[in-house]
Task: inverse folding
């Protein structure tokens, strides 16, 4: 009898350690785009996000812009803060920091500044210290892995200053993982398609691929998509279906193919992307509004692979 009790106790203790190691060594987050629009999809996506965040112990939400339709927020007391944000993303598991990125709709009438002014004030979760910024996440005690996010304001990517900042931030990053974030997709087979200024010459794309940036997360096209290149390190992930939907464009797809890239997955369905990073491997999961995993892939940290 005593032996059985000791055995059970030992099992419980070792399982607890395994569980703690498992949770501590991981960083999970949600990528949500083009979401601040009151539709029947928005509430369902919010519910699915809450469930995923709880199941995966999500540490933060990363928005990829078009946070408030149609013209951003016009003040710190704009009712849209409640109707499109606070009243919708109510699951307790979404009571985590929201690192926010600006989209073209957020910029109307110079309104983007109100999302910056709202930084950790209008709602403690809202994190936007500037129009564009970087932040670093340190993994829990487990792995000691650092992940740097470079959050660009791509509505201004025609401006030389913004392009210069983005390139500098990418080349300067010395974190274990470097991840770039912006509203406009560098590559997309959706309605808007790829963004020429970000793709071309002394470009954002080139800097990301040279510096082994693992992911570029974007929105703007209202779909979920994964684009990759067989011998380039950056994965292009679009999470733009937080509320609205666009179909694929055959012309945009042809352009992606002509550039030598492959659209590994495309779906015009409401949803979001969930990411879990554990040491040098990331698991990227595409989830629809019903909470179903509709696609996933694993990515090895290209920086670690190069060592
Ligand atoms: Fe949008
Ligand atoms: Zn947009």
Result:
């Amino acid at each position: 009898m005593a032996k059985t009790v000791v055995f059970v106790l030992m099992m419980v203790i070792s399982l607890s350690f395994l569980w703690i190691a498992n949770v501590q060594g991981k960083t999970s987050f949600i990528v949500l785009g083009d979401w601040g629009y009151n539709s029947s999809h928005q509430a369902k996506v919010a519910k699915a996000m809450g469930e995923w965040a709880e199941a995966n112990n999500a540490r933060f939400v990363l928005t990829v812009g078009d946070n408030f339709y149609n013209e951003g927020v016009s003040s710190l007391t704009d009712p849209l803060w409640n109707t499109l944000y606070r009243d919708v993303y109510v699951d307790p598991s979404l009571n985590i920091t929201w690192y926010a990125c600006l989209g073209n709709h957020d910029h109307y009438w110079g309104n983007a500044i109100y999302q910056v002014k709202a930084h950790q004030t209008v709602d403690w979760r809202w994190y936007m210290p500037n129009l564009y910024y970087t932040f670093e996440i340190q993994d829990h005690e487990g792995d000691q892995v650092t992940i740097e996010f470079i959050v660009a304001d791509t509505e201004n990517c025609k401006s030389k200053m913004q392009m210069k900042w983005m390139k500098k931030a990418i080349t300067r990053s010395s974190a274990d993982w470097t991840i770039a974030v912006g509203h406009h997709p560098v590559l997309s087979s959706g309605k808007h398609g790829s963004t020429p200024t970000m793709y071309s010459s002394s470009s954002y794309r080139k800097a990301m691929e040279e510096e082994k940036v693992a992911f570029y997360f974007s929105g703007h096209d209202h779909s979920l998509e994964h684009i990759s290149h067989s011998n380039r390190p950056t994965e292009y992930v679009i999470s733009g279906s937080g509320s609205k939907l666009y179909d694929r464009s055959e012309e945009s797809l042809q352009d992606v193919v002509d550039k030598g890239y492959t659209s590994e997955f495309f779906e015009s369905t409401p949803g979001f992307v969930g990411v879990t990073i554990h040491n040098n491997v990331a698991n990227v999961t595409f989830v629809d509004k019903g909470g179903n995993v509709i696609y996933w892939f694993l990515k090895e940290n290209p920086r670690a692979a190069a060592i």
Summary: The CA atoms of residues 183 and 256 lie 18 Å apart. Residues 66, 103-105, 183, 220 surround zinc ion (ligand 2) (CB under 6 Å).
